[in-house]
Design a protein that fits this description.
This is Lipoprotein. The protein is mostly beta strands. It has 3 helices and 25 strands.
Length: 409
C-alpha cells in the first residue's frame, strides 16, 4: 500500500512538471531614448546580444556596450533601420566586431536584466553614423586620391581671348607620414586643354616635409630674463621625372620634354601634421625642346603654398610664383639666347557633396604666364581663369580625422 502511494505521488509530480509551460526569455524593455542619442565608445568592448524578437527588430540581434557597476547597457540593432524604424537586412557597415556574450565575465542571462538604453553604434575616425545606423564619411583627405576634373578655362593671349577653352585634368596623389617626415607623391598628373590645343603631363613627382629635432641656430636674448629661441631649418627634396608640355599659339608651336628636375626645398612654415606648408624651392632641370631639337639646362626657383583650411579637408588653397631661365641652348631664330619663363597661380577647391562617399568638389583658379622661349611669340603676359568640378575616386579620411562622437558634438 505504501509503495503504491509513493508511486502515485511521483507520477502526479512528473505530470505537473511536464504540463508546466517552458520558461520564456525576458522581454526586452528599452529605456526612453535621449535626444540626441548617445554614441557607443569606439574604444570599449561591444557584446553581441540576442535579446529576443521585437516588433521593430524581429531578429533580436543587438550590439551592447555595458557598464556592469551601474547595470546599464547602451544597445543598438545589428542591422540598419528603414525610414519607419524597422529592421532591414543590411548589417551595420564599418563597425568593429562584437564579442559573444559567452566571452564576457557577466553571464548573458544577467546582462539581459540590465537597463537597456537606445544608442548609435560607433564609427571609425572620419565617419558619421545616423540614428538609423547608416554610416557616411564626413572627413576627406584630398592629398590621397585619384581625381578626374573638367573646367571652363578662358585664356587671354597677346592676340585674342579664347572663350571656348576647356580644361580636363587627371592625377593620382599619395601622402605617407613617416615619423618626422611626410612623403608626397603625384603620378600621371595631367592637364589637357581643348579649344587651344595644349597639354601638360608629369609621370612622377615626389617631395617631403620634415620637422628637425635639433635646431640649427639657438638665439639667446638678454632683454630682461634670458630667453632662448630655437630656429630650425627644415630642408627637403623635390623631384620630378618625365614631364611633357606642348602648346599652340596660332601658327606657333612649342614642345618641351623635361627628363628630370631636382630641387632643394625649405619650409618657411608648415602645420603640425606637415600637410599644409609655405616653402621655397630651387634647382636645375634637364630639358629638351623637341620642336627646335635643342637640349638645355633650366634652373628654376619657386615660392609656393598648399593650405588645408579646415579640420575635415573641405577647403584647400594653393598658390605660387615660379621663375625659370633656359641655359646652354644654341641660338634659335626668333627668340633670345637665354629665354625666361615666369608663372603665377592661385587656386581654391571646395568639397560640395559626396557620391558613395567619394567627394565632388568645386575648383576655381587664376593663372598668369610670361615666356619668350617660343620663337616669334610676342613677349606679353597671358592670363587664364578656370571654374569647374572635380570628382575624387578615392579620398580616405585624413590621418588626423576625429572620431564620430566628437564630430557630432
Amino acid at each position: 500500500m505504501l509503495v503504491s502511494a509513493v508511486t502515485l505521488g511521483f507520477a502526479l509530480l512528473l505530470s505537473q512538471v511536464e504540463d508546466s509551460p517552458p520558461a520564456q526569455p525576458p522581454t526586452l524593455v528599452l529605456q526612453p531614448a535621449r535626444d540626441p542619442l548617445p554614441v557607443q565608445d569606439a574604444e570599449r568592448l561591444v557584446v553581441c546580444l540576442n535579446l529576443g524578437p521585437t516588433k521593430s527588430v524581429p531578429s533580436g540581434q543587438w550590439r551592447a556596450q555595458c557598464n556592469h557597476e551601474q547595470r546599464h547597457c547602451l544597445v543598438t540593432p545589428s542591422h540598419e533601420l528603414d525610414a519607419s524604424g524597422q529592421e532591414t537586412e543590411r548589417p551595420l557597415e564599418r563597425v568593429r566586431a562584437c564579442v559573444s556574450e559567452i566571452h564576457v565575465p557577466v553571464p548573458g542571462d544577467s546582462l539581459k536584466t540590465y537597463q537597456m538604453e537606445p544608442s548609435i553604434a560607433d564609427a571609425p575616425p572620419g565617419w558619421y553614423r545616423d540614428e538609423r545606423g547608416r554610416v557616411m564619411q564626413f572627413n576627406f583627405d584630398l592629398h590621397r586620391r585619384i581625381w578626374l576634373g573638367g573646367a571652363w578655362s578662358p585664356l587671354q593671349t597677346p592676340a585674342k581671348v579664347l572663350e571656348n577653352r576647356v580644361r580636363l585634368d587627371f592625377g593620382i596623389a599619395l601622402e605617407i607620414p613617416d615619423g618626422k617626415r611626410l612623403h608626397r607623391m603625384r603620378l600621371l598628373e595631367s592637364e589637357l586643354f581643348l579649344g587651344e590645343p595644349s597639354f601638360d603631363t608629369t609621370l612622377f613627382r615626389y617631395d617631403f616635409s620634415v620637422e628637425r629635432d635639433e635646431p640649427l641656430f639657438r638665439v639667446t636674448t638678454f632683454f630682461g630674463e634670458p630667453r632662448r629661441h630655437d630656429i630650425s631649418i627644415n630642408l627637403g627634396t623635390w623631384i620630378e621625372v618625365l614631364r611633357v608640355e606642348e602648346l599652340e599659339r596660332g601658327e606657333l608651336e612649342g614642345g618641351f620634354l623635361t627628363w628630370g628636375t631636382v630641387h632643394a626645398t625649405l619650409d618657411l612654415w608648415h602645420s603640425a601634421d606637415k600637410v599644409s606648408f609655405v616653402r621655397v624651392r630651387a634647382g636645375p632641370s634637364a630639358e629638351r625642346d623637341y620642336k627646335n631639337d635643342v637640349n638645355t639646362l633650366v634652373p628654376g626657383a619657386v615660392l609656393e603654398g598648399d593650405l588645408t583650411l579646415d579640420r575635415d579637408g573641405f577647403h584647400h588653397l594653393r598658390f605660387g610664383a615660379e621663375a625659370e631661365k633656359v641655359l646652354l641652348s644654341r641660338r634659335v631664330e626668333g627668340r633670345p639666347l637665354r629665354p625666361e619663363r615666369l608663372k603665377v597661380y592661385a587656386g581654391y577647391e571646395l568639397i560640395l557633396l559626396a557620391i558613395n562617399d567619394q567627394p565632388l568638389s568645386l575648383v576655381a583658379d587664376a593663372r598668369g604666364s610670361w615666356r619668350n622661349d617660343l620663337p616669334h611669340l610676342p613677349t606679353r603676359w597671358e592670363w587664364s581663369a578656370s571654374a569647374g568640378l572635380r570628382f575624387s575616386l578615392w579620398a580616405p579620411a585624413r590621418h588626423t580625422a576625429p572620431l564620430a562622437d566628437k564630430a557630432r558634438n
